[in-house]
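Fold this: Diguanylate cyclase domain-containing protein
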Amino acid sequence: MNNYVFFFLLYLLPAFFSFYLGVEILFRDRNLIHRLAAAIAFITTVSFVIDYFMTVLPQAAVEVLLIQWKMPLSMLTISLDLWFYMETFRPKATRVARKYRAIRWVVPITLPLMYVLMVLYNNVLYPDPIAYAIERNIFFTNWLGQVVNLLMIAYILAILIELYLASRRAGKEEKDERKKIRILLVGILVMLAVIVFSNVLRNLRLVPHGMNIEDFGPLFEMICIRYVMVKYNFLPAYHMRFKVVFHNSPHGIFIIDERGIIHDANEAAGRLVGREAPELRETPLAGLFDVEHYGEYRELMGIFSNKAPRKEKETVWQTHRRERIYVVYNVELMEFEKERLLCLSVRDVTEFKQVQTQLVHLAYHDPLTGLYNRFYYHEKITDEIARAAKNGQQLALVLLDLDKFKAVNDTYGHMAGDDVLRHVARAIGRVENPDVFSARLGGDEFAILLRHVESRDRIVDYMSRVLEGIREPVSIEGHLVSVGTSAGVSLFPDDGQDLNTLYRRSDLALYRSKGAEVRGRLEFYTKRLELTDETSGTDR
């Protein structure tokens, strides 16, 4: 009973501690380096559990656990150690592996795979391979065993050389970097010393049956890694500075390789397109561009052949939910470890564009009717007059004024008057014509500009439909109210060649229309209206 308690304390408590280290490392960050460190901790946990069972099971079961489980896990630990230090201190060594993801698995699986092949090879050669291997130590005397031995030595030497070179690359001013490397080097050396010491004790039979202390080596290494992580932020100093800026930037940052694949993206980039940042990695940047703006993606990728930095550019992207967003981005071409990459800094300007669109709409449109306002009316008609003069075309400027609109306001109130004005705007909009430009000039006065006028009949036909639509009754407080409309027309270039002249002569025609015995008619400007202007006195 005392032995069980002793082995429980010796193996299972360190197993729990190793598992805790792995969980903490994994949840500190989800990048590849942290995942590798967590994997080493979890494998160490499993190894401690196996050590515990090796102390309580029969000899035959112990040998099975040792050969088929314990040793492959030890070799996998060494493989992950090498991968871990390569990723941490020598990122360019894995640049090819990042480009071709299948190569990433070569380092961690080669040594365990060779061991598995060795086991299968011996299973074919010997009727009881485990017993024969233990008796003759055949696992490490045949040719496959020699390959495994050489690979183990090569991996261990590669780890030591990698740490040594990392310490040489660290500048004298980076004292924390050098201290960190020394601590990790101590962890590796202690791990190797514990493994060697454990094997010596086992071969000299100085430890009880099944007892094994070599897993305390990887555990000590994990303690060193965790200490470095907390004390020195774990990553190399220059990586850490980049990481802080990269992940805390309010703008979305995308790192793009020459294939157009997103190499990395920060949290702001994920929020921008409605996805988690890790989900964006290894996905094509082209998928973010709106179909109508795909040419801008090709232009962006053309920067790889033109090193000049791009100026700020606005485009349209689509989110994960296929929603269109307006973005502004800056891009720089950079070289990192001999690999050319694009750094794309992106910010969402959708809200700004919406506000800008609203402001532009308010600047050019009447807020009550949605038609263009007087300001844009002057600007637009001036441009159209210049264009018509250049192309030899005819224009018609129509002014409309509601008949007895004041009576509607006085009887039903200004809210009812607003309803009537909106009704007029809808009536004008219902008569479809691509060559028509309409505006509300103020009060109950409206203007319509007809372009490409070929004859007066076309004007009469269009305006007849408009006036008929305006005359349709409007429901106000349960009453049907109908208003009439008078209209005056002047033509460019016959009646005037500038806006002021056309406006004044359309107004004269409108004045004549309202003064007629039958209102709600369309009146064209004639020269005799100039003679009767001062003598007319119709209430408008």
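Residues 59-89 form the longest helix (31 residues). The longest strand covers residues 324-336.
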